[in-house]
Structures are given as structure tokens and as C-alpha cells.
Design goal:
Length: 325
Amino acid sequence: MGTLLARVAVVALAAAAAAVVVDGQMSPAFYDATCPALQSVVRRGMAQAVQKEARMGASILRLFFHDCFVNGCDASVLLDDTANFTGEKNAGPNANSLRGYEVIDAIKAQVEASCKATVSCADIVALAARDAVSLLGGPSWTVQLGRRDGRSASQNAANTNLPPPDARLADLLTRFSDKGLDARALTALSGAHTVGWARCTTFRTHIYNDTGNAAVDAAFATQIRAKACPSAGGDGNLAPLELRAPAAFDNGYFQDLVARRVLLRSDQELYGSGVGDGSTDALVRAYAANATLFAVDFAAAMVRMGNLALTGKNGEVRLNCRRVN
Ligand code: HEM
Ligand SMILES: *[C@@H]1O[C@H](CO)[C@@H](O)[C@H](O)[C@H]1NC(C)=O
Ligand SMILES: *[C@@H]1O[C@H](CO)[C@@H](O)[C@H](O)[C@H]1NC(C)=O
Ligand SMILES: *[C@@H]1O[C@H](CO)[C@@H](O)[C@H](O)[C@H]1NC(C)=O
């Protein structure tokens, strides 16, 4: 019942915001006249995908992040490599790791069936990521729409802009501030790791070797080593980024940071690293103590990240998300 009420409130908010135009180009009402069924089509596609495999909610959320951090949320991450085109799918952070492309294809096909050549792939990913979070029990928010699809992609930008799993706090702060996202947005958005899974290769060094300010809780390290990550081999073995409830979008991740029970060094850097002004430490404690505060800040930060967009007459509305028109 609470969820239903929350949804009703969000719908009312969307209607109230209909006249508001962000960045001169984007608006929640962008497709109201041209594709009124859009949001229900995306929601249904995501509900089916998450029901089939809960992890897909996490995968689509990550897809949106990896799109937005490389030349903006322009669906560049969806372009397939061809003989004469190198896209982002095989960049280091994406290869054998990023997933959910088929889910976006299926939703795009359904959107095209009712609204031909109207809705960008970038907007579909933005809506799908919002729905993924709410389907996993997290907050919902009104999505600004009107993004255009890029006509290019950059494997090099994907390799350099996406943070590696051993990134230090100063590096993370810089990468996010380069996108107009402050320490609060960095900390809130990192809370996405309350859902989903990671491969042993991304966290082996952290759970075997990190000490001092990056030390891992000993019992947790023992458990993960035995269950999912031998000191050699098993690179592709998966472990949940948040151990207790990897399919529930809650604030458990922040409690894990405080307890030093997380897989990624980059995550632990937000708490107890002993460098910087301690602002991320204070936010981690606040989010660990108050799930509502995390939900509110996460939703706001997702909107901000989603505003890194190509709009107006730039780019195009792709017919097939995997190739430019
Ligand atoms: C702050 C810097 C970040 C770093 C260094 C980072 C790194 C990683 C790594 C290494 C993985 C595991 C990938 C694999 O083993 O295949 C992962 C998974 C994931 N990331 Fe991040 N990430 C960051 C921020 C974010 C943000 C901002 C979001 C979304 C808002 C996000 C969402 C996710 C999700 C949901 C997964 C699980 C995906 C799945 O299960 O398919 N991450 N991340
Ligand atoms: C690139 O390859 C595709 C087929 O994969 C072809 O249709 C297209 O004309 C080629 N473009 C250029 C500029 O060579
Ligand atoms: C841990 O450190 C030792 C000593 O430097 C090194 O030999 C080993 O490869 C490291 N293991 C991992 C998993 O990083
Ligand atoms: C938790 O955060 C919400 C949102 O900022 C706030 O309204 C509420 O008062 C906080 N709860 C507590 C117990 O501090």
C-alpha cells in the first residue's frame, strides 16, 4: 500500500512538473503528445526483465551510469562494434561485464511498435534505470526526457572516464566533479552497489591484500575468499556487492562500509580512508543511519547525472539502439 501511495504521489509530481523545462530542452512531458504509452511500456518491460532475473535491475542501473559518464547519457554505450566502428562495449570497464543490452533492445522494439522513430534510446535507458531501482524496492523519481542519441562513441573515453575498482577517494571526487557531481552525489550514487554482483578479478586485491585505512573485516574477507575468490583463478566468480540483500535497494551498503565488509576498494575509500575533509565519511554514516535520507539523495543525484545529455537538434533518435541511423 505504501508503495502504491508513493507511486501516486510521483505521478502527481510528474503532472505538476509538466510545464517545467530543464536545460531549455528537457522535460518530463517531452513525449506526452507523441508517445503517451512510453512510460508504461518501459515499466512493463523492466518488470518482466527483473521478474525473470532480479540482477537485471542492477545491470540496467549500471548501464545508465556507464552511458552517462562517457560523453553524456546519449546511448553511445549501446552501439555495437563493427568492422569499421569501435564503440564502448569492449572498453575495459564494460567488456565481459556490462549487461542488459537485450533488455533495452526488447523495450525499444515495443516502443517503436507504438511510437515509430520518436523516442531516443538514451531516454529509454534513463526510464529503465529509474524503474529498475523502484522495482528493487528503492525510490522513484520523475525522469527528465528529451535526450538525443549520439552518432558516435568512444572506447578511449570509456576507458579513461569510468572509474576503476581500485580508485582512491581523491580520484573518485575528481572524476565526479568533472561531471558536475559533488561528494554528496558521489556518495549517494555509489549506494547503487547495494544491488548487483561483481567478479572476483575486480575485488581480489582488496580482500587479500589491502591493509591500514583500506583494511577489510577479517571474517568477511575469509568468507569471500573461500566462497567466491581464490587467490589465483576463478576471476569470473561472482559475489554480491552487498552480502545480505543483493536484490533489495536498501541502505545496507552504507552499513557494510562502516563495518568494512565491501568488495571494492573504491567503495571502502568513501569511509575511513583518512584522507580529504571527511565529508564522504559523514555522509556514509548518515545514509547508514537513515534509509530515507539515502533514498532522497540517490534520486536527486540520479536526476543530476541524467541531465548530462545531448538535446535539441544534436544527435538523432536511433531506430535501432545498436547502430546509428
Ligand atoms: C564510484 C565509482 C564506481 C566504481 C569504481 C564502480 C565499479 C564497479 C565494478 C568493478 C563493478 C563490478 C563489475 C564486474 O565485476 O563485472 C560494479 C558493479 C555495479 N555498479 Fe558500479 N562502480 C562505481 C559507481 C557506480 C554507480 C555511480 C552506479 C550507478 C548509479 C553503479 C552501479 C553498479 C551496479 C548496479 C553494479 C552491479 C551490476 C550487475 O550486477 O550487473 N556503480 N561497479
Ligand atoms: C561500415 O561498415 C558497414 C557494415 O558493417 C557499412 O554498411 C558502412 O557503409 C561502412 N561505412 C564506412 C564509412 O565505410
Ligand atoms: C598480495 O601481495 C603479495 C605481496 O606483495 C603479492 O605477491 C600478491 O600477488 C598479492 N595478491 C593479490 C591478490 O593482490
Ligand atoms: C531521515 O532523513 C529524512 C530525509 O531527509 C528526514 O526527513 C528525517 O527526519 C530523517 N530521520 C531521522 C530519524 O533523522
